[in-house]
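Model the whole thing, not chain by chain.
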Amino acid sequence: MALPHDTEAKFAEYAHPERLVSTQWLAEHMGSDGLAVVESDEDVLLYETGHIPGAVKVDWHLDLNDPVTRDYVDDEQFAKLLSAKGIGRDTTVVIYGDKNNWWAAYALWVFSLFGHPDVRLLDGGRAKWEAEGRETTTDAPSPATADYPVVERDDSTIRAFKDDVLAHLPGALLDVRSPQEYSGERTHMPDYPEEGALRGGHIPGAQSVPWARAAADDGTFRGRAELEAIYQQEKGLEPGEKTIAYCRIGERSSHSWFVLSHLLGFSDVRNYDGSWVEWGNAVRVPIVKGAEPGSVPSR
Amino acid sequence: MTTSTDDLPPALAEIVDDFGALAVPDRLQLLLDFSRELPALPPRYCDHPELLEPVPECQSPIFLVTEIDGAGAGATVHLFFSAPPEAPTTRGFAGILAEGLEGLTAAQVLAIPDDVSHRLGLDEAVSPLRLRGMSGMLGRIKRQVRDKSSA
């Protein structure tokens, strides 16, 4: 049985307010039957330093990725993971994490590939919970094993592969990396190591909106009007148009995918998780360098 | 798991052995212990953060500085690190280097194999990018030691 939605006024403006809860909502509902709280961070040890009471950890690297193939876990692995974390198919899942919910949004997107019905983000994530002085603990929870069904992963609705992107050109694209990565000056974020792409630049026609522009200073999502001003008025993206978002490996773009689909109500948004480490290494795919979106070459 | 430690100085060899003796989840716990035990910066650096060198290879902000007593290959090396509490993995790697390298001679530090971050058995638990961050710290430590000791 799903928990009640958070009726906070800010959320009501969004297309799908049921996808967010506030720290206050979580504080009031912590420990409820049918609720699982999941922490998913960039830093693999952060959970162990203290977490929201009862929260289980889902690690993007160990739990959500297949250890061999560059892909996500399959249906059986996902069912096993969620069962072990005490999550059933009808459980309300609230995910939170560090860095503006960057990795939490990634985990939510993977949960969505398996169509988990009720999965929400904690607005503001770990930083806001801590800043408000709310309770944390280092006690490891021991949830009772649940029986999560084996559900086929749907890679066709919210996930795009390289060939999908090629077929989509010159369709709407959103590049959520830093301006330096977009222009081709760098292949990784500023202050991060250069990693693994032979060519720099962006996919032709992609609009540049660095992912963190969607977050306010306290890590919460900006209000709907502010988000519309960025993605729709400034960048000209249209809610009714098919849109594909990408970044370096698909994690930052999960955050922007969440914004477009759940907050702004775009009807068809896919996340290209191959992203720049695939595109920037692929042979003969079109690339544009510089600050302008550019266009697909006619060859 | 058996990992060669013959080419490592004793303190670092012991750390590698400790990691190797544990199952993977416990290795993360040990890394967390190192992050907690990372010594705080002495006041002379707290007040002058510009004296520390940033390590852009790491995913989280970390700064380090070395001090050298003496000159040449036999000079003694001291290490100081600064990393925020919300970056425990990075702090853990810094803690390993702080404990494993503190008080060695310049020649011993320069002889540490560059692949030492891959001998901790963390490759399956920590992303490759993070392990590269530890290698980045070691590389910068070695360069500072080489410059400052003229070894």
